[in-house]
Design brief:
Elements lengths: L1 E5 L3 H13 L4 E4 L12 H4 L2 E4 L5 H12 L8 E2 L6 E2 L15
Antiparallel strand pairs: 1-3, 2-3, 4-5
């Protein structure tokens, strides 16, 4: 298992988890529940962490993370490679069929 991402924002960690799951990379969030205890315990010990299960997919997972974190040009639309739906730039997956943005 490899730690791929940590953030104080559980929603952000969950979004990346969804991206990795869409690519077929098995992963899980550690500290998902304890993140709600922030303030009662040191933040570093309760921040949500995203771990992948298969070490051999680390390079692919890291690239997906880099692409996901990269700033996108405002207003650039994209076309879903699976169903052809036109989507606005803020969407990372197709709202119609769920396919991840290429």
């Amino acid at each position: 298992m490899k730690l791929i991402f940590t953030s104080a924002d559980l929603v952000t960690v969950s979004e990346l988890k969804d991206m990795l799951n869409s690519a077929g990379i098995a992963c899980f969030i550690n500290n998902e529940v304890s993140s709600t205890l922030s303030g009662g315990i040191p933040q570093g010990e309760c921040m949500p962490e995203l771990w992948i299960e298969d070490d051999s997919r680390e390079t692919e997972a890291v690239q997906i993370k880099k692409d996901w974190l990269a700033p996108r040009a405002a207003g650039t639309t994209w076309t879903c490679p699976k169903c052809g739906e036109q989507l606005e730039s803020q969407f990372t997956s197709c709202w119609k069929c769920g396919t991840a943005r290429a």
